[in-house]
Design goal:
With 55 residues, the chain is an alpha+beta fold. 15% of the residues lie in helices and 27% in strands. It has a two-stranded antiparallel sheet.
Length: 55
């Protein structure tokens, strides 16, 4: 076996995305129903905490 073929290749991609939004959803696993969904411009800890709060 040629050991030169077993190298790990790393790729770094830089791209600018415009208009990207984040969705957070809570599912009931047994029935696959969406219990609560949140859409927003960011995906931070604060967004997850706000999603987790009862209505």
């Amino acid at each position: 076996m040629n050991t030169e073929l077993n190298r790990i290749e790393y790729r770094i991609e830089y791209r600018i995305e415009y208009g990207t939004q984040t969705s957070i959803a809570s599912f009931e696993v047994a029935t696959v129903l969406v219990i609560k969904a949140s859409l927003g411009d960011t995906s931070t800890e604060v967004d997850y905490l706000e999603h987790d709060q009862p209505d």
